[in-house]
Amino acid sequence: MVEREFARHPELAQRYGATGRAKSLQDVGYHLSFLGQALAVNNRALFIDYVAWVKVMLGKRKVSSADLAFHLECLAEVLTEQLPAEAGALAAAFVVAAVQAMPAMPEDLPTFLHEGAPLSPLAHQYFEALRRGERHLASQLVLAAVEAGTSVKEIYLNVFQPAQYEIGRLWQTNRITVAQEHYCTAATQLIMSQLYSHIFATAKNGRTLVATCVSGDLHEIGVRMVADFFEMAGWNTFYLGANTPHADVIATLVERQADVLAISATISYHVDAVRDLISAVRADPACSGVRILAGGYPFNHDPELWRKVGADGSAADAQQAIILADQIVKETAA
């Protein structure tokens, strides 16, 4: 495919060089992975959304929308030629739909740190401290706010969450490096742990949640925030992080007599991994009473996706997840 792309437009080699050619080949792998997930759940919008993300990301790295569109058109041609007729036509249709949607896709993304939002001054100060590499100052800002009466929930929703979204936006738009993004995320996770004396002080209601990310998904901070919200709502929570083997997730569910398993996938590339974990849990008779919630960006984008992977429900945020979990646990006990 890349050979075809560069042969038809020799100027691409002059514009991007050997490095660009190698990156184009790497991008094909990413495109196929995300396309495969969208096809698996028969949701064209998931792939279109991915291409919208790619358009911004590559645009900020000096790759034009026209070049991206041509790249995807070549991909559609190759899919039609190399796959069986029906499969090739379907896959190509998903790609063509994304290309046709590109003119309406944004070139840039607005900030997530909005003036006038709750705790906006603190969120800005916190974000800037992280960006400067001053995690101790960031910690002091948060701890002082909590000591002054700001609730941990408010800190999570109005400081940590928008700051993390903004960090992701700056990486996507080529304004910070991967190393800076990882530093900021690690700092926020450290500061979250400094609030645990407040989080774990809530009286317990006897219900238990196990929370995890699927294998390969390293964006675990979101589901960790969800687990902390459940803890503050009175649940006993066991947060397993990312890359926990299926057998160990199941063993924890059984050992802790869990009521609910929360599974997170932050990108559509990992939807199949969610389905695989759910299938493994469903296949174990010892987990027959466990209810499963699936969440994360692709599930917010497709409100019916949780059904397609075999979960019991999905929620757009932590507060809604708690309400839904309480509801399905009551229904199970009835």
Task: Give a brief outline of the structure.
The chain is mainly alpha-helical and 334 residues long. 64% of the residues lie in helices and 6% in strands.
Largest sheet: 4 strands, parallel
Poorly predicted residue ranges: none
Summarize the helix and strand pattern as letters: HHHHHHHHHHEHEHEHEHHH
Nearest-integer average pLDDT: 94
Helix and strand composition category: mainly alpha
- Give the overall shape, derived from the CA principal axes: globular
β-strand number = 4
Do you know the CATH topology of the largest domain?
Rossmann fold
- Give the end-to-end Cα distance, rounded to a whole number of Å: 57 Å
Strand order of the largest sheet: 2-1-3-4
CATH architecture of the largest domain: 3-Layer(aba) Sandwich
CATH level-4 homologous superfamily of the largest domain: Cobalamin-binding domain
User: How many alpha or pi helices?
Assistant: 16
Radius of gyration: 22 Å
Strand content: 5-15%
Summed up, the domain count is: 3
Helix content: 55-70%
Question: CATH top level of the largest domain?
Answer: Alpha Beta
